[in-house]
Design brief:
SusC/RagA family TonB-linked outer membrane protein; tonb box; TonB-dep_rcpt-like; single chain; transport; transmembrane; mainly beta; globular; 9 helices; about 5% helix; 56 strands; about 1000 residues; 5-stranded mixed beta sheet
Length: about 1000
Amino acid sequence: MKNKKNPETFGSRWRYVWVLFALVFSVNVVAQKTVVKGNILDKDNLPIIGANILEKGTSNGTISDVDGNFTLSVTSPGAVLLITYIGYKNVEKPASANMKIVMAEDSEMLEDVVVIGYGSVKKSDATGSVTAIKPDDFNKGLRTTAQDALVGKVPGVNVVSSSGAPGTGATIRIRSGASLSASNDPLIVIDGVPVDNSTIEGGGNVIGGINPDDIETFTVLKDASATAIYGSRASNGVIVITTKKGADTNLRFNYSTNLSVSTVTETLDILSADEFRQFVPTVSGVPSSVTLGTASTDWQDEIYRTAFGQEHNFSVSGKVKQNAPYRVSVGYTNQNGVVRTNNYERFTFNGGISPKFFDKHLTVDLNLKVSYENNKKVDESVVNNALRYDPTHPVKTGSSTAATDPGLGYFIWMNGNSPMAIQTDNPVAQLDLQDIRNKVTRSIGNASFNYKVHHLEDLQLNMNLGYDVLTSKYSKEVPELAGMMYTSNMKDGTGLVYDSKQNKRNYLLDLYANYSHVFNEKHNFSAMGGYGWQHFWKKFDATTFSPEGKELFSPNHYESEYYLLSFYGRLNYSYDNRYMITATLRSDASSRFAKGNRWGLFPSVALGWKISQEAFLRDSDVLSDLKLRLSYGQTGQQDILNDYPYMTTFTVSYPEACYQFGDKWYNTYRPNGYDSDIKWETTETYNIGLDYGFLNNRIYGSVDYYQRHTKDLLNTIPVISGTNYSSVITTNIGEMDNKGFEFSINAVPVHTKDWKWTVGMNYTWNDSKITKLNVVDSEANFVQTGAISGTGKTVQVFMVGERPYTFYLAKQAYDDKGKAIEGQYVQPDGSVSATETKYATNKSALPESYLGFNTQLSYKNWDFAISGHGAFGNYVYNYIAADQYVQSVYSDQGNFSNILRRTKDTGFQNQQLYSDYFLEKGNFFRIDNISLGYTFRKLWDSSSSLRLTFGVQNVATFTGYSGIDPEIYSGIDKEIYPRPRVFSLSANLSF
């Protein structure tokens, strides 16, 4: 019994041993910690702020402060520090007590690495016309949609929003586009997935579901050498959007918010109620017995409002273990429009992870984007109706029986006890009684696999599986007796319940291999080859019922699909980092064409010469970069509305158009027009460019000149009756030339310890001309376009020898005092008569040139920035003014309409729709954004920061145009939702 050990006593003793061991170990660990202090400078002995200092092989790190100083506790005296900073070469240095580190500028800056088709390349090694930008975090303003970040930033790229409504889409043109009836939209590639950019039912934004806060870079591929690797759909350029990824760092959080207030900058100058009451009796034809109202209603004031918005984004990034960086973000946007009842709401999710396996030889990149957009839209005719509506009548009648009255208590024009069938709709009633919604759910994702072959790491095998799935639901509900239901729908007050649903699917498979190797340190060779498959499918269904469920019109339905197959390859060779050549070849097949015309072959070749690397310039203290680029290539176009243009197809009749035989009703089938020989539209491009940099790239930029020729234009033209099943078909006919000049310059005039000033400017000149339009061309041979109102009313043409979208109008005659003579036009022989002879005005809606400008000034933690853009040489047809005339104030039915003050002053008694009097220069320059920000650094540790920004968007527009806004891509000003001025307060917290 004496030798028996007490278990409790034995365990207690061991506890003391373990505690003692832990204390010794802790002391040992503490003893191994070494405090390192240092100062990081550039070659001019100026501090580098925000440099990353990392103990190599660990996640232990910090950043340098405003004086370039840092303090870091390392785990051992033999630790090695890795110092990195954008624009400077990495430094590795053994840790010591007091370190002075001088970082050398790296001419191959991080932002100069650009994403191209199926790979990436340093900007200095690119032979094509490629521009990469990062969204400006310092002067971004309110960016509801992704394309907002591109406005005025890239030479050769013109971005015009379709309206000022939040979440609206935009027209994006790279080098003005190369097609007529086919799509002129650029190909958009999001994280390796070429997305479907066809129209979304309900007017949704093609890339509206992409959260601008998630975008890392835009890369714009402009010339054929850069775009040819995409072959199909690349004739109009390519925009590659790369979203933010996880980084090989510690856990990081970021939260940003934006609170905004939007206001209307300008309204149309119309007659007030008192002016209207005074003017109407002076108009000939107005009965003396007519009595105007006693109210004074500003209808524009009734439909507009001060709009509030909010945006919130939260992201988490880090890594799982050591080999799987990830990033996850969520975003929420809620933006009211300046037109009452208009609201745009969006939820976004973006997640990505990039694990590595097999000793980092296999990289898997998984990306998922999900978005939901809820757009409460407004009928944009309310803008024009607010101009026209009689200001002497109230918004509402005040009737005690409003619930059963025609108009539901809102003022409408009555003819006795019946509402007038032809009248302007009450704009306030339009807003209050119509519920118009567009709900879009979209998911874009891909899984890409990159395998570096073991023991042959120069060879990489890639597979990319991607998808783009979208559902759009558009609905419009109007109650019984609403005023709009007497001027549209059944025109008897019957309400409306319209529902449509569009489904779109796009699936992608890419298999390709990359090989690169440097031979004898001077011969850099790389090759890429692959296969691509893409399937596009869409389906649409729509129904129209009354609120009681009665079917008002036959359902509408269509379903369609097409396929693209591709083989592609690229060879790159450079000698001694001076002479470069790139050759690409892509063969595409589109199911939109018959077998004999299905395949298109698109080659390109480009040469590059780094002149600055030659011996006679290599040591220059002034010239830091000079590279000459030459390229030629072909791209294809097959993006047309009809997926089966070469086949005989039939349209099934609606039930109300059936024929009765005996006691049965039968559907009829109408054959559609087709062209069995339709084939690829082809664009060939020549490009010469020069990249330059001076004073260690304190001044840098590029110059490009290009010429494009498009043949076999996919054009929708009229054909002789009886030669086809339709009077209009899409076929290959016509040619067009396009040439342009692009220039960009960026400079850093001041860069000291406390001050930094950057300036950037880009300029583009472009000219397009149609050189062939039909088998036999003549002056009378042209295609009408530019619809204004009603059937067959157009004001633009496609015509040989003219720019696309040239205005086709009658030449207004003027008296000796320069006043327009109503109804009199100058004839081709110089005489003046009432004959409304139209002519090609040689004035187009397309700008001849456009300009972008930005500057930023920072002092310590403060920053101030301005950006703007403009367009010149374009013309705008003021349809809002042309649609009005003095006699329009009174209708023979007995109702009144307001007019512009300009209409009263001009004095046209009758409508002059086709007079070039209403064609105006559209030149403008807009100050897009002004922002002032302050950054709080080291809130609670070295990696935490908070930035506060106050910004103003759409600050001012300088123009001679008489309308509200000259920036209209179509060049026809009608029913335009105005762009608001936006005041915003933003915060960005990072830790």
